[in-house]
């Protein structure tokens, strides 16, 4: 074969090799779509889910931060529940201690002789009844008085009712009523607190934050704790760190309220060129996009496209034609570093770092080297 023929053969082989490389790059393993692929799918009618790709700028940062401001959550906040403080009232299941004091002709202490044989005894005599449990209908039963309604009343009101019942049988009856054990006027605190259990309410109008503190608080960061609150048929939940003491969300508690403190750490996920798909915890009250990218090592020099970092947020403000927005960040743009510091991350945000297009060709060459280097080595050894 002539030199010209050999050259043509080599050129043909090179062309075939390049064609194979280009065809092979499309089917090589990849950590996700390239920036070009994402942009092409953003066009209308190019996929099952229509979306917009928006370059991160000041306006989008303000809109995204506004979407996670307090009060913008779609789930009902605690302040939405009816707040009618009823603490301190007596109800079914409570145990009462009732003491009755009599002067003069007494019903329980018996007759006493005096020097003048006067049946009137000026000294006071006390009668302590055994602890009484309020029944399901809100009544207790006392000797010689029968059933007395106490449900929904204060201790002072019950004392007046007892005195009224004994007024016709005793002179100057005076009653002292205390709640020995309260079941009705209490709340239950459960979950990730140091001392879960039942806490009795008083006329001090205890608030939610007070009761969580009375239960020993939580060992977890308050921004990673979710408070699930149940009042009657109403349900609401909110992060403990978002409940300011004394605010409308720091509810004045009612009897029967149930509070569950649940560990719910805020996280974001990362896909793409960093290699390992990971879920990363915030570990701070506020996490910026710049800090989130740094947590995962940023775009790799060897594999990633620094102009194609994308932020996905499920309930982000909608864009053109009501389609959701995907936000593109270019780390080659210096202004981006300021914007990413201003943008606050939200629980369940997703960051995707696209692979560089040149990375596909590099992968293909690497595979070829792995395939043919043993053959080349064997020929060299055979010589």
What is the strand and helix layout of this fold?
Elements (H helix, E strand, L loop, with lengths): L2 H23 L9 H7 L10 E4 L2 H9 L28 E9 L20 E5 L3 E2 L5 E4 L3 E4 L5 H12 L7 E8 L4 E6 L5 E4 L7 H7 L10 E7 L2 E6 L18 E6 L3 E6 L5 E4 L7 H7 L8 E9 L12 E5 L4 H9 L7 E6 L2 H25 L1
Parallel strand pairs: 1-16, 8-12, 13-17
Antiparallel strand pairs: 2-3, 2-4, 2-7, 5-6, 8-9, 10-11, 10-12, 13-14, 15-16, 15-17
Question: Would you mind describing this structure in some detail?
Answer:
Belongs to the BexD/CtrA/VexA family. InterPro entries: Poly_export, Poly_export_N, SLBB_dom, Soluble_ligand-bd. Residues 89-179 form the Polysaccharide export protein N-terminal domain. Keywords: Cell outer membrane, Ion transport, Lipoprotein, Membrane, Palmitate, Polysaccharide transport, Porin, Signal, Sugar transport, Transmembrane, Transmembrane beta strand, Transport. Residues 187-231 form the Soluble ligand binding domain. The chain is rod-shaped and about 105 Å long. The strands form 4 sheets. Strands 1-16-15-17-13-14 form a 6-stranded mixed β-sheet, sandwiched between helices. A 5-stranded mixed β-sheet has the order 9-8-12-10-11, with helices on one face. Strands 2, 3, 4 and 7 form a 4-stranded antiparallel β-sheet that branches. It has helices at residues 3-25, 35-41, 58-66, 155-166, 208-214, 289-295, 334-342, 358-382; strands at residues 52-55, 95-103, 124-128, 132-133, 139-142, 146-149, 174-181, 186-191, 197-200, 225-231, 234-239, 258-263, 267-272, 278-281, 304-312, 325-329, 350-355. Strand 8 and strand 9 (197-200) form a beta hairpin. The chain has 3 domains: 30-70 and 267-363, Outer membrane lipoprotein wza domain like (Outer membrane lipoprotein wza fold like, Roll); 78-86 and 184-263, Outer membrane lipoprotein wza fold like; 95-181, wza like fold (2-Layer Sandwich). It is of the alpha+beta class and 383 residues long. Helix 1 crosses helix 8. It starts with a helix and ends with a helix.
